[in-house]
Design goal:
Carbamate kinase, 2 domains, 12 strands
C-alpha cells in the first residue's frame, strides 16, 4: 500500500459508538528508527515522528481513579519502541500499521489514528509520511485493503508438529521462493496452553487468545530461521509482500476478538488458515502434516474424527481446494504448486 493509495482512498467516517468514549493522545514521539527501502537508509537509523490518537471505551462506573480502568498511554510508547527495536522496516506504512495493530490488541480501544513522519528525507520538506485510521474488529471488516489485492498462490499451514522436525528448514527454504502465505501452527507452545487450562481451569476465551500467541511464538521461530519470510499481522501487510512476489508469514495477534472467529478449541490453526485463505482470495490451502498420509482423497468428516484437523474445519473450509501434504515432500509439493498441479491428498466433503 503506497501513500498515494491511502490518500486517494480517504478516511471512512467513524461509526457511531454507543458507549462513553475518552481519547488517549501521544503527541510528537521522536524516535530513531531503521526504516526505508534505499541502501543508504539501511546503513543508519533516522528520525521518525509518531502521533497516535485513540478512542477508548470507558468502563462501567468510570475510572474510579484507578489506572487498571484506563488505557495507559505508556503502552503506546513502549509498543512503538518494541516494534522499532525488532528490526529494519521498509515502509512507513508498515510501521504505522504495526503500531495501530498493537494498540487494537486492547479490546477497549474502539479506533486508532497513527501518523508516522520521516524527518530527514528532503531538505525542502519538514517531513514526509502517512496517517492511517484503523477500527477495532467488532467495528469493521477485517483490515480492508483499499488497493486491488494480489491473491497468494496458496496458503500453507505449517503444523506445530514441525517445530522439532528434521525437514522444517527444507520447507522454509522452499516456501521462501514463492508468493504464498505461511500460517504457523501452535505446536508445543499451544500444548502448554492446553495443559495449563486443565490444571488451572481458565476460560476457553482466555485459552483462545493464548493459543493465538502460541502460533505467534512458532511464527517468530520460523521468521528467524528463514529471513526471507515477510512478517505480516494484517491483510494490508500480506498483500504488500505478495505484490512484491514475496512470501508472507502471518502472525494472528491482530485478530483480537474478531466476530468471525469462535473462541474455543474447535477453532485452531487449521480453521484459521482456511479463514485467512478466504480473506486473501486464495483458492488453495495446503496443510503440512507430519502424520502418515495415504490415498488420493480424504473426507473432511473422517479427518475431524481422527483429529487430523480441528472440529470447526468443515465450516471454515468453504469452497477451498484443500490438500494434505507430507512433511517429507517439500521440494515436490512446491514444484507442483508452482506448476498448479495437485500435490497431496485432496480433502472432500
Amino acid at each position: 500500500m503506497t501513500i498515494a493509495h491511502v490518500l486517494a482512498s480517504g478516511v471512512a467516517p467513524r461509526p457511531a459508538l454507543p458507549r462513553a468514549i475518552y481519547r488517549i493522545v501521544v503527541r510528537d514521539l521522536l524516535l530513531k528508527c531503521r526504516i526505508g527501502v534505499y541502501e543508504h537508509e539501511r546503513l543508519a537509523p533516522q528520525r521518525v515522528l509518531i502521533n497516535v490518537d485513540l478512542a477508548v471505551s470507558e468502563v462501567v462506573g468510570g475510572t474510579s481513579d484507578d489506572i487498571a480502568n484506563v488505557y495507559n498511554y505508556e503502552d503506546v510508547i513502549s509498543g512503538a519502541k518494541d516494534i522499532i527495536a525488532a528490526g529494519h522496516i521498509d515502509l512507513v506504512e508498515t510501521l504505522a500499521e504495526r503500531i495501530a495493530a498493537h494498540c487494537l490488541k486492547d479490546s477497549r480501544v474502539e479506533d486508532v489514528r497513527v501518523k508516522v513522519e520521516k524527518l530527514d528525507v528532503y531538505a525542502e520538506a519538514e517531513s514526509v509520511g502517512i496517517e492511517i485510521e484503523r477500527l477495532q474488529a467488532k467495528n469493521r471488516p477485517y483490515d480492508p485493503c483499499p488497493t486491488q489485492p494480489v491473491p497468494p498462490l496458496a496458503v500453507i499451514k505449517l503444523g506445530g508438529s514441525m517445530a522439532g522436525h528434521a525437514d522444517l528448514k527444507s520447507w522454509l527454504a522452499c516456501v521462501a521462493t514463492l508468493p504464498v502465505v505461511v500460517v504457523p501452527g501452535g505446536g508445543p507452545f499451544a500444548d502448554q496452553v492446553r495443559d495449563l487450562q486443565v490444571k488451572q481451569g481458565f476460560s476457553d476465551q482466555a485459552a483462545h487468545k493464548m493459543a493465538l500467541s502460541a502460533m505467534e511464538q512458532f511464527g517468530r521461530m520460523l521468521a528467524d530461521l528463514e529471513p526471507r519470510l515477510v512478517i505480516a499481522t494484517i491483510l494490508s501487510e500480506i498483500f504488500s509482500a505478495l505484490s512484491l512476489g514475496q512470501p508472507a508469514l502471518w502472525l494472528p495477534s491482530a485478530l483480537g476478538d474478531h466476530p468471525d472467529i469462535a473462541q474455543s478449541w474447535d477453532v485452531t490453526s487449521d480453521s484459521l488458515a482456511a479463514w485467512l485463505a478466504a480473506q486473501t482470495g486464495a483458492t488453495r490451502l495446503l496443510l503440512v502434516k507430519s502424520a502418515p498420509l495415504s490415498g488420493a482423497e480424504a473426507k473432511v468428516a473422517d479427518l475431524i474424527s481422527s483429529g487430523m484437523v480441528d472440529r470447526a474445519f468443515a465450516e471454515y473450509r468453504g469452497a477451498l481446494q484443500v490438500e494434505l501434504v507430507s512433511s517429507s515432500d517439500a521440494a515436490f509439493v512446491m514444484a507442483a504448486l508452482a506448476a498448479k498441479r495437485p500435490c497431496g491428498v485432496k480433502v472432500v466433503s
